[in-house]
Design brief:
With 431 residues, the protein is of the alpha/beta class. It contains 15 helices and twelve strands. The strands form two sheets. A six-stranded parallel β-sheet has the order 3-2-1-4-5-6. A six-stranded mixed β-sheet has the order 7-8-9-10-12-11, sandwiched between helices. The radius of gyration is 22 Å and the shape is globular. Bound molecules: manganese (II) ion.
Length: 431
Amino acid sequence: MQDSLPSLDNLLIAPEANPVNTYSSPLTLDSTAIKPVAKSTHQTESFQAQPFGYEVPRSLEQSQKVEALRQTLDKHRGERQIVVLQDFPDPDALSSGWAYKLIAQKFDIQCDIVYAGTLSHQENIALVKLTSLPVQRWALPTLKSRDLSVYQGCALVDNQGTTCGLVPSLLQAGIPITVVIDHHSMQEDIKAEFVDIRPHTRATATILTQYLQAGLLKLDSNSSEHVKCATSLMHGLRSDTNALRQAQEEDFLAAAFLSRYYDAQLLNAVLQSSRSRQVMDVIERSLKNRIVQNNFSIAGVGYLRYDDRDAIPQAADFLVTEENVHTAVVYGIVHDEDEDLEVVVGSLRTNKITLDPDEFIKEAFGQDAQGRFFGGGRSQAGGFEIPLGFLSGFTESSEYAKMKWTVFDTQVKQKLLRLVNPEQHFPNGMN
Ligand SMILES: [Mn+2]
């Protein structure tokens, strides 16, 4: 979920603007003012890793995770790891991967952050360019020329391997999964040395920030690398919490911690990157084609180039803002010219608290022949990919292309409407 948003300065109450608040700075908050809250909601332990002005609530489980990660990293000193992001990495994935790399570096582990797909959202491109975020694109066809034997382990950050085209090849090459840190719903039974999956946490950036706060790496505001990483984490956690509008206490605490290091101007520059013409066109198509039923807005947008596929979640972000709509699903056929493949790609966005995107998508589209689900999600967002298989491939005949789209459009709509409107689709109550 990314949109242009008010700067964080508007969200953090400036103490001097509030006559009731007599604190001179948020960092000198009287710790007794915060402690009781922390104690009543969490089991806390004494916190000494970094002076933060007040105690950061941390559950026993979280403390154990910090210790377990520390031990895992310690065990792998001197090694080289490959950090794999989802094929179409978002700010949460990019920033979390970077934070992991910096933490691992502290343990003398060298990391390369890679993704197989493309950076298609203008904000993600701006983020990577403006912060010099150390990430590499490893398109699948180039994999043969890579030397995987230099890696002793792999880290999956903001994913569980199910959305990364690179993972099967890495496993085949015998590279073990050392670390998984994610906030999506548990996908498959994952075998890794260290696993921290928190489906109820809004952003992986929040989890990584907690690791920083716990002292796995002490941020230094004089290090431009640390400042840029903190800025991207701020962007990551804002973008996965709808600009903090859906943030929970732990996200605000993480943002408060990052606010000591991040560069507000840099974040503004990233957020101000504008929408491309192609994205505007796809949003226009989604508006034109949408049908609204039972507060769901559903739109097929036809064919898209691979580089424009991020227009789909952006269109879903836009459609969900309509009055009386709580959930939007946008999908299209994405054509990958490099591999001459076609895939139905879709995104779901919802404001409805009781709707679980992961469950909804799995229920709507089911599994493929290998038993893998076509998609999944996290809180308030989800996505799916359905390969066209034998029907894949561009054709000269526009008549045929139109026919093919109609078939897939109808099929996807039918699957969605079965859930959106059960009465109408199961008149005998057979839902
Ligand atoms: Mn995320």
